[in-house]
Write a structure and sequence with these properties.
Helix content is 49%, strand content 11%. By secondary structure, the chain is α/β, with parallel strands linked by helices. The protein is globular, with a radius of gyration of 17 Å. The chain has 12 helices and 6 strands. It has a single domain, classed as Rossmann fold (3-Layer(aba) Sandwich).
Length: 254
C-alpha cells in the first residue's frame, strides 16, 4: 500500500527482556495501512551491542537521536512500551521539538521509589551469577503477559519466554540500573503539547492503573485506552488493537 500523505513516521521502542521483534505484528499492520514504522533494537538487545557506556537512559536517548538522523527524520511519532516508554520520555525531555506525537504503553512517569530501586539492583546483581540468572529471568518472564494470555495464547506466552531467555544477563543488568537511575518524567510530560496516548492492559501485573492514569493526566492532550485481557506487552498480546490505536494517533498529527 502507498504511504499515507502528510503523516509522520512512527518509531516503536521495545520492552525490557525482549527485542524489537515484539513489534513485528503491530508493525506489519501499520505498514499495510500505509504508515512508515521503525522498530530498532535498544542497546544490548537483539542485534544492538551493549557497548561500554555506564548504565543511563541518556545513552539510549542518544542512540535514538542518531537513528532519526541516519534516516533523515526530523520529527516522528514516538511509541515506547515498558523500558521503551522510559526511553521515549527521556527523548521527549531532551528533544521535545522532534516528537510529533507520543504513545506510552505499560510504563510509568514517576521515578522509582527506594524499594523499587533496591529490587532492580538485586535483579542486576543476580545477573552476574550464572547459576541463578536463568531462573530469575524465567520467573520474571511470567509477569510480562497477562493471565488471559498465559491461559489462552500459549504461542504468545512461549514466544515471550523464549525472547527473555535469549536476553544477555549483562544487558538486563545494564538496563535495570539505567531504569532505576531515571528522573521523574512528569514535568516533561506536562510540557508536551502534542497528541498523546496511553495504552494500558487491564491485566498488567507490573504497572498499576494509577501509574497509567498519572501519565495521561500529566499530558495536556493525553488519554488512556484500556485493553481488556492484556498484560504488560500489548503489542504482542493484542497487536491489531494496538496498531489501530497507534494509527489513529498518527492520523491526529495531520
Amino acid at each position: 500500500m502507498a504511504e499515507r500523505q502528510n503523516t509522520p513516521p512512527i518509531v516503536l521502542l521495545h520492552a525490557l527482556g525482549v527485542d524489537a521483534s515484539m513489534w513485528d505484528a503491530t508493525r506489519q499492520v501499520l505498514e499495510e495501512s500505509g504508515h512508515t514504522a521503525l522498530a530498532p533494537d535498544l542497546r544490548g538487545f537483539g542485534s544492538a551491542p551493549l557497548g561500554e557506556e555506564p548504565p543511563s537512559l541518556d545513552v539510549s536517548v542518544d542512540d535514538l537521536a542518531r537513528l532519526l538522523d541516519q534516516h533523515r527524520i526530523e520529527r516522528a511519532v514516538i511509541a515506547g512500551c515498558s523500558m521503551g516508554g522510559y526511553v521515549a520520555m527521556g527523548f521527549l525531555a531532551r528533544h521535545r521539538d522532534r516528537v510529533q506525537a507520543l504513545a506510552l504503553l505499560s510504563t510509568r512517569a514517576r521515578a522509582d521509589e527506594p524499594a523499587e530501586k533496591d529490587g532492580r539492583e538485586m535483579f542486576a546483581t543476580l545477573m552476574a551469577t550464572p547459576d541463578r540468572a536463568a531462573g530469575v529471568i524465567a520467573a520474571a518472564s511470567l509477569k510480562l503477559v497477562g493471565a488471559t494470555t498465559r491461559a489462552q495464547r500459549s504461542d504468545v506466552f512461549e514466544r515471550v519466554r523464549a525472547l527473555a531467555a535469549e536476553s544477555a544477563p549483562a544487558s538486563l543488568a545494564w538496563a535495570q540500573r539505567a531504569i532505576a537511575a531515571r528522573p521523574d518524567f512528569v514535568p516533561a510530560l506536562r510540557a508536551a503539547t502534542v497528541p498523546a496516548l496511553v495504552l494500558a492492559g487491564t491485566e498488567d501485573e507490573l504497572i498499576s492503573a494509577q501509574d497509567h492514569r498519572q501519565i495521561a493526566e500529566a499530558l495536556p492532550q493525553g488519554r488512556v485506552t484500556w485493553l481488556d485481557g492484556v498484560g504488560h506487552l500489548p503489542p504482542m498480546e493484542s497487536p491489531d488493537r494496538v496498531a489501530a490505536e497507534l494509527s489513529r494517533l498518527i492520523d491526529e498529527t495531520r
